[in-house]
Design a protein that fits this description.
single chain, mainly alpha, 74% helix, elongated
């Protein structure tokens, strides 16, 4: 499961962000605080996704080294 998440992190992030937007739009009774908290969590998740993608890019450019990239340990 972790391999799947690591491999498809950008797609999963996009699904989560789209789902949050749809729920915020179509469920009128949600408290503003909840929507803002979930939006902040999505932004934090975006940072993690960016680090994973950067690690994949670094690994590809270095020829597939087995050393973990910075921030993925």
């Amino acid at each position: 499961m972790l391999t799947f998440i690591h491999t498809h992190s950008t797609r999963l992030y996009a699904i989560a962000a789209a789902a949050l937007a749809l729920v915020a739009y179509y469920v009128p009774g949600l408290p503003t605080e909840l929507i803002l908290a979930l939006s902040a969590a999505i932004l934090g998740t975006g940072e993690a996704v960016q680090r994973i993608e950067d690690a994949k890019t670094t690994k590809a450019h270095s020829g597939g080294s087995s050393q973990p990239a910075v921030g993925t340990e």
